[in-house]
Amino acid sequence: MRGYIGSRVAHSAISMVGLVVLVFFLARLTGNPADIYLPVEASAEARAAFSEAHGFNDPLIVQFWHFVRDLAHLDFGTSLRQDRPVLDLVFAAFPTTLLLAFFAMFFALVVAIVSGALAAQRPNGILDRFVNVISLAGASLPNFWLAIVAVLVFSVWLRWLPTSGTGGFVYWILPIMVLSIRPCGLIAQVVRGSMISAMSSAYVKTARAKGVRSSTIIFVHALRNAMLPVITVAGDQATGMINGAVVIEVIFGLPGIGKLMIDSIQYRDFAMVQGGVIITAVAIFILNIAIDLSYALLDPRIRYS
Amino acid sequence: MRTTIASNGQPSRSTIRRYLSLLWHDKFAAAAVLFLLLVFCAALFGPAVFEASSNRINLIARNAPPLSFKYGWAFVLGADSLGRSILLRLIVGAQNTMLLAASAVICSLVIGSFLGFIAGYRNDWTSAVIMRVADVVMSFPSLLLALIVLYVLKPGIANVILVLAITRIPIYLRTTRAEVLEVRERTFVTAARIMGASPRRLIWRHIRPTVTPTLITIATLEFAFVMLSESSLSFLGLGIQPPAFTWGAMVAQGQSYLSTAWWVAFWPGVAITLTAMSLNLFANWLRIVGDPVQRWRLESRKKSS
Amino acid sequence: MTRNDQHLVEIRNLSVEFHTQEGTVQAVRNVSWHIDRGETLAILGESGSGKSVSSSALMGLIDIPPGRITSGEVLYRGEDLLKASYERQRALNGSKIAMIFQDTLAALNPVYPVGWQVAETFRAHGVDRQKANARALDLLERVELPNARARFNDYPHQFSGGQRQRIMIAMAIALDPDLLIADEPTTALDVSVQTRILRLLKELQRERGMGLLMITHDLGIVEGLADRVAVMNGGEIVETGPVNQVFNAPRHAYTRNLLNAVPGKHSFPASAPEGVRAEPLIAVKDLSKGYPSASRSPAIMALDKVSFTLARGETLGVVGESGSGKSTLARTLLGLERASGGTASYRDCDMLRPTEADRTILQRQIQMVFQDPTASLNPRMTVEEIISEPWAIHRDVLPKKEWKGRVGALLEQVGLTKEHAQRYPHQFSGGQRQRIAIARALALRPDVIICDEAVSSLDVSVQAQIIALLKNLKDEHGLSYIFIAHDLPVVRSFADRVLVMRKGQIVEQGRTDSLFTDPQHPYTRELLQSDPVLGSHVAA
């Protein structure tokens, strides 16, 4: 198992390094980096001074070396817009996104697993068809639109929940619900499929022949096997959660990493964008390792090979 | 327990007719295909026919609610803040929406499956390099990647397509490679190798036909995904720029009038959802039809019912 | 009915149908049998005969829908289980009636330790966790699982097929059931392992006095193990009675055919005259194939200095258990694997390092027929496309306009018809598919056909037909065969000479009659003895 985890960590690390390199070259190779680091209205002299001060006139390899050296010192530069270290701003925004993503994922997983597992008990039964259509619809909903409609219904018409902003628990309900719908639909489809094949497997037949209780068969024998493909999809969805979070944070005015990035893009604050990308990459790196570990924990065939 | 096979050969009906009658027996899939045809026609002829009338500003009809027939049939879904018919704008906007998604899907399908064939068939260091690059792209939220690239490259039709295509290439690449690796080891491929079949023949006659249905199914699912991503980009203002517009941009435009005229943002979202859902349903149907063994089941079910 | 003539289990007029997507299928019709404690009943049938259905009904394992029990009674000590509640059935399953299955890798849950799974039988019937674990360990030791205590928490994939079957047996006998149902318990196992498992089952039956219901396609197992037999065909019991009565004087035509089809009971094939042998087609000398192994240990030798010749018109049988290197031999000769030493030649062509011209000759003259005809035929090609593929590869052999006619002719030679050419492989039965594969192998008029377990996955009666076909084709086309099999009886009635392989080496080779009647090597003797057809009966 150590070999498996080791190679997975190495793969994820390569991805992370690749992304860092990509970000570096994106900023350097598409023209004068001063153009993207500086506001549009900056004067030619200001640009020249900026280039000189940040070493943009040095050879590329030297620049890359400085870039990596700064990263190693956790120096991501200074936000142009707020004039504060990028790292501070990113860390201030991160908890919001993390909370949002965590609860949305949790909610999505619980609903998807329960409904998918129940639907699989009678393939093509009424419940199964119902879950199938609903999850398909959920997977097809554009979340920005869903957010708008949810605000319209629950905040504007019914006046149950606040439209946007931060505050207590009620401010989180709509964002979390909306963010969880698409992953929930996608995961439910996978759960249903893998649960159907698990329930018709030979080991379930063996358990029935042993006289094992049907609740044990479903939740102990079948579900654990059915979870293996689910984890893969859930992992992809967790990465994709950041996509959704960007949109959701903008619509609901939550000060998370997505909102920070969009604002930075609008104000052409490239140091901020770059820092946000790299920190997000680190977070996803950790997430991927966690997924690989849980995979190994669930499946002994991976652990012992 | 084997049912006997009718002794006459394949039915002489043309293949297209056989697929059509198969489709007719799956009501959900048939409805999905009908809707997709409708969208396709709108995308093809919409702008040519309705371009002018969809741009006609009619201040009397500002924010007219749905079913405002006094302004004409075109206002069945209401009008936007400039009094333009939402229905006509949906029909005209279909072209850009479909064009963007289709171009991106075709680009990533062609590039991804080509690289996947190479990675799968050679399975040496080239494969390792290709896979690591794909990992880099995959391990980062596609929307965030698109935002950054569009920030550096400036949004425009070509760049939006490029970004959407690049972020989805790994899906085709991984699937193709995995399938090629698996199919390559099947006995019928070994049998052909023993007879002396050239690599080109192996790939073209044996591996490609086996992999193609999977790729088409994935491309259909991806079409829905890319369309949703493009809408998110447009919603965030980083898609194609005005005066050109897509359904996603229409939702963004309607967001400001949510409390006074909800329908402006509502209908484009419905169009996106229905299209995505139809694509998902169609993909599910394709998955069954693409497999000759399963297709045969569908046909015999048809006969028995 | 009085208490005395009540059987342990009695099935009366059971009919079951399945609603599949292909329509309604009658799985069994009016099936009746009974079994008592201490007795062994075998249900004998080929695939699709419905032999497993009645025992599934007994254990409530038929899914309803798609299954539907249309008539009959399933009595356990006089109680109709078809009318029993779910809880009642659950209480009987595992404690009074237990079952073991064929594919143990699939039948054991891959994500739980084996000890846990054996103990589950106890837990499911109210034994507490600790006691269940202790008794599970005792059981694993009883079924002679090597190193049971240390391996208690290992997972199914870490055991061999034979060991897994022992674990399944431990699970089944945990609560001293009245009846043990064994559904093809040894089908996927090597003959020597098979014997040991069957011996263990017999021993346990004697020890515990339980009834044993063997569901099998293997006449040898029935003969060696069972007291009574019920022969099933097409969902019906065609004949039933004591084993020796049924086998010595079969009344039903199907039983007679089945008994006739059993390989290895007939005389040896007439060996080719010595003169013909003088012309060797293939000569293999010291052929070796090593795989680099993990850590510092020496390479694993899949083939270790293998030498033999194949004469023109000869059928050479290659016999060995799984892992003996017999398939590697075929793959190396065909250039699918690179040999690590030795030589192999076909006429004047070097088979291991052929020149371009020689390679073309080899590709045309040496063909292969695989074990699983479902896998060896491309499911997306029609039969015509499949059979004409060799000509598409070797363009100069046959002009395209003659393909259609030749395909028809080849199909007729292998016992199919011209009309089959436009269909797809999945529309045929297993035996028919193997015929298509043989037709493809004949397309280039080869000298040699290598059959790698070509009849192993087929039913006995189909097996006999395919072997008869191969024999006819050999005479018609002057073919030579290298016939690889794990099944000794098949080789006995077909091969002129036999090689016995073990761990990559040839331990013995010789004329079929002398090898079978007077084996020299102890391993050959062991193989012969453990075969249920050829060897002595398992039940002493």
Structural commentary:
The complex is a heterotrimer of chains A (305), B (305) and C (540). Chain A has a domain of 212 residues: MetI-like fold. Helix content of chain A is 80%, strand content 0%. Chain A is built from 13 helices and no strands. In chain A, 43% of the residues are buried. The mean pLDDT of chain A is 82. Chain B is mostly helical and 305 residues long. Chain B has one domain: MetI-like fold, CATH 1.10.3720. Chain B is built from eleven helices and no strands. In chain B, helix 2 runs antiparallel to helix 10 and helix 8 runs antiparallel to helix 10. Chain B starts with 14 loop residues before the first helix and ends with a helix. The N terminus and C terminus of chain B are likely disordered. The C terminus of chain C is likely disordered. Chain C is an alpha/beta fold and 540 residues long. Chain C has a domain of 227 residues: Rossmann fold, CATH 3.40.50. In chain C, the strands form four sheets. A six-stranded mixed β-sheet of chain C has the order 6-7-8-3-9-10. In chain C, helix 16 crosses helix 17. Chain C contains 22 helices and 20 strands. At the A-C interface, helix 9 and helix 10 of A face helix 2 and helix 4 of C.
CATH architecture of the domain at 87-298 in chain A: Orthogonal Bundle
Give the H and E element order of chain B. HHHHHHHHHHH
Q: What's the β-strand tally of chain B?
A: 0
What's the total helix number of chain A? 13
- What is the total number of structural domains of chain B? 1
Distance between the termini of chain B: 20 Å
Q: Measured on Cα atoms, how large is the radius of gyration of chain B?
A: 23 Å
For the sheet with most strands of chain A, the description reads: none
Tell me, briefly, the overall form of chain B: globular
Helix proportion range of chain B? over 70%
Question: What average pLDDT do the residues of chain A reach?
Answer: 82
Low-confidence stretches of chain B: 1-12, 296-305
Structure class of chain A: mainly alpha
CATH class wording of chain B: Mainly Alpha
CATH topology of the domain at 87-298 in chain A, which one?
Answer: MetI-like fold
Give the distance, in angstroms, between the N- and C-terminal Cα atoms of chain A.
Answer: 6 Å
Please mark out the parts of chain A with pLDDT under 50 across 5 or more consecutive residues, or reply none: none
* Count of individual helical segments of chain B: 11
Q: Note the run of SSEs of chain A as H and E.
A: HHHHHHHHHHHHH
Helix content of chain A: over 70%
InterPro entries (chain C): AAA+_ATPase, ABC_transp_ATP-bind, ABC_transporter-like_ATP-bd, ABC_transporter-like_CS, Oligopep_ABC_C, P-loop_NTPase
Family (chain C): Belongs to the ABC transporter superfamily.
Main location (chain C): membrane
Domain ABC transporter (chain C): 11-259, 282-528
